[in-house]
Amino acid sequence: MAAANRFKLALVQLLVGRSKSDNLSQAVKLIEEASSNGATVVALPECFNSPYGSKYFKEYSETIPGNTTKILAEAAAKSKIFLIGGSIPEVDNSKLYNTCVVFNPDGQIIAQHRKGKLHLKNLKP
Q1: CB neighbour class for 66 (10 Å; exposed up to 12, middle 13-18, buried from 19)
Q2: Please, which of 20, 29, 92, 107 could form a disulfide with 77 given CB 3.0 to 4.6 Å?
Q3: What is the dihedral of CA 112, 118, 121, 125, to 10 degrees?
Q4: Is the residue at 59 inside a domain?
């Protein structure tokens, strides 16, 4: 394989608590650590900014773009990496989604995928 086709992938794991700001700070710290160790693609876990489970979606949901995606965009741009933003609880038009957002090294959103539409359809923000 040619060197130009190689990349280093970091899969981040973190202990998530009830404080969204603490969760985001921890994620940014681990993104920076992965980047400083040579990762050019970093992936965060599902529901990294909130406790895991659809029962928390209403409380922790936000729009996209929003605070979490702003912070992730800044982290991707600062580290010059592709960042797979795990997933976050998203609210859009009074519906809740479990959404993954992907950023390029300029911090721009290049992909977005709403996961779990079926099991979340009965939840209301």
Answers
A1: middle
A2: 107
A3: -40
A4: yes
Per the listing, tokens 């959103």 go with 109
In which residue are the tokens 């979606």 written? Answer: 57
Residue 125 in any domain: the answer is no
- Residue 6: band (very low, low, confident or very high) from pLDDT cuts 50, 70, 90: confident
Task: Say if 11 falls within a structural domain.
Answer: yes
Encode burial over 76-102: b for 16+ CB neighbours within 10 A, e otherwise. Answer: bbebebbbbbbbbbbbeeeebbbbbbb
pLDDT tens-digit readout, 11-40? 999 999 999 999 999 999 999 999 999 999
Which residue carries 């995606």 as its tokens? 69
How far out from the chain centre does Cα 107 lie? 12
For residue 70, give the CATH number of its domain.
3.60.110.10
